[in-house]
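Re-running Mimecan to confirm reproducibility after the cluster update. Everything else is unchanged from the original entry.
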Amino acid sequence: MKILQSTLLLLFVPLTKPAPPTQQNSRIIFDYGTDNVEEILPTQDYKDQYLDGKNIKERESIIVPDEKSLHLQKDESLTSLPSKKENDEMPTCLLCVCLSGSVYCEEVDIDVVPPLPKESAYLYARFNKIKKLTAKDFAEIPNLRRLDFTGNLIEDIEDSTFSKLSLLEELTLAENQLLKLPVLPPKLILFNAKYNKIKSRGIKANTFKKLSNLSFLYLDHNALESVPLNLPESLRVIHLQFNNITSVTDDTFCKANDTHYIRSLVEEIRLEGNPIILGKHPNSFICLKILPVGSYI
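Result of re-run:
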């Protein structure tokens, strides 16, 4: 009888394993009356997987390029370099102001003429430190119409500097250190070289002879001992004041052998500040519509 009871007890013992303990904070259910609010909180395993996955993504985002990719990047950077033309023009237009064919390089302390864009028509390089002008400065800029180098330190200009500038109409070299003049372009309308150190021997006899368009000539405040020879008929304004001119002749402005000759275009001649008494040379101005400005005794 006892053996039968023990056998029956063994049969009623549960054969399944006990359930594992419930993980904390995996799910909390709140029961507020009729509403069930369920809040799901991340387990520690989930946190570990999330952080591990994040680290994997960060590691994947840091890609070390191999030698081949570096070579390709190098080649791509080489293809993006500017052309030689852009390289030549860019520095000038960064230092100066380039606008519609005009280049403004004023007060930037340059000591040579900068490379100019080929389409340049006007160059204003006033108040710098340029000491010399050469033919190479304008060799490839044929469209120049106006050059202004006022207030530099120019002492020398090569004779061929302006020889290829067939369109040049205005040339200003005022307030420099010039002792002589170069060959001037044929279509010049205005030439200004006042406030220099130019002497009469620094101007060749035919310097102005063929300048049939020259209307304005400014050579005041120099060291001229005489009026330049062969001044063209086209001149309207002639400024020669404050030089060392001591005399004028009947052929200086007029023609001694032609009493009917009239220089009709002249509107102004200035000779004041020279060691000359204009009243002693009345016939020297007989062809003029107006008398020169100066001392008359």
